[in-house]
Amino acid sequence: MTIFLIGFMGSGKSTVANLLATDFIDMDAVIVDNIGMPISVYFERYGEPAFRQVESDVLKTLASSGQIVSTGGGVVSSKENRRILSESTSQVIYLKSNFSDLYARIMADKENVRPLFLEHTKEALEVIYESRKALYEMVATKTVLVTDKCPEDIVKEIQL
Ligand SMILES: Nc1ncnc2c1ncn2[C@@H]1O[C@H](COP(=O)(O)OP(=O)(O)OP(=O)(O)O)[C@@H](O)[C@H]1O
Ligand SMILES: O=C(O)C1=C[C@@H](O)[C@@H](O)[C@H](O)C1
Ligand SMILES: [Mg+2]
């Protein structure tokens, strides 16, 4: 059974996926492999709709992978991606958090500086977060509140 982890940037998808299975698949990494350039460069050259199309193609392939998959933070923003997630037989786990905790984590994470974070003000990022909140809930088969929980406890909740 494929398990997709979804949630906004910084919600802990990669951290939790790695605890669930060290051979987990990072969807952004698969996309970077396919397009042969950093996602930020692809966005700049071809625009977001073209990126979402690539993302949909990768998502479809991964739905039958039987692996743990950490998705891109914006995977729910395209209708096609939401359809693929809703119609697949995979588990879709939403790691839910409030914006201020996410922002603090993204700011503190010096190992992974997200292009979206560099390109937007805090207010603009919050607008994106607000616009996606309901969409994550809509496609999730399970929502796990991650506030004040360590990754190990989040894993336990996922496995309940
Ligand atoms: N439950 C947690 N408690 C505290 N810190 C956490 C927790 N989960 C993840 N972190 C930290 O938050 C930061 C973001 O985590 P991670 O990279 O796993 O998020 P992500 O959802 O994969 O982000 P992105 O969508 O940008 O790939 C990292 O520095 C990580 O160590
Ligand atoms: O939140 C988003 O829209 C994105 C998040 C990243 O994981 C990447 O998938 C890409 O940079 C878009
Ligand atoms: Mg990640």
TrEMBL record:
Main enzyme class: transferase
Main location: cytoplasm
Cofactors, names only: Mg(2+)
Listed pathway(s): Metabolic intermediate biosynthesis; chorismate biosynthesis; chorismate from D-erythrose 4-phosphate and phosphoenolpyruvate: step 5/7
Alphabetized UniProt keyword annotations: Amino-acid biosynthesis, Aromatic amino acid biosynthesis, ATP-binding, Cytoplasm, Kinase, Magnesium, Metal-binding, Nucleotide-binding, Transferase
Keyword Calcium: no
Co-factor remark: Binds 1 Mg(2+) ion per subunit.
Catalysis: reaction(s): shikimate + ATP = 3-phosphoshikimate + ADP + H(+)
Binding of Mg(2+), residues: S14
EC code: 2.7.1.71
Residues bound to ATP: G10, S11, G12, K13, S14, T15, R114
Binding site for substrate: D28, R52, G73, R132
Subcellular location: Cytoplasm
MF terms in GO: kinase activity
HAMAP family: Shikimate_kinase
PANTHER family: SHIKIMATE KINASE, SHIKIMATE KINASE 1, CHLOROPLASTIC
Function comment: Catalyzes the specific phosphorylation of the 3-hydroxyl group of shikimic acid using ATP as a cosubstrate.
Assembly information from the UniProt record: Monomer.
Family that this chain belongs to: Belongs to the shikimate kinase family.
Protein name (database record): Shikimate kinase
Organism (species): Pseudolactococcus paracarnosus
Gene (UniProt): aroK
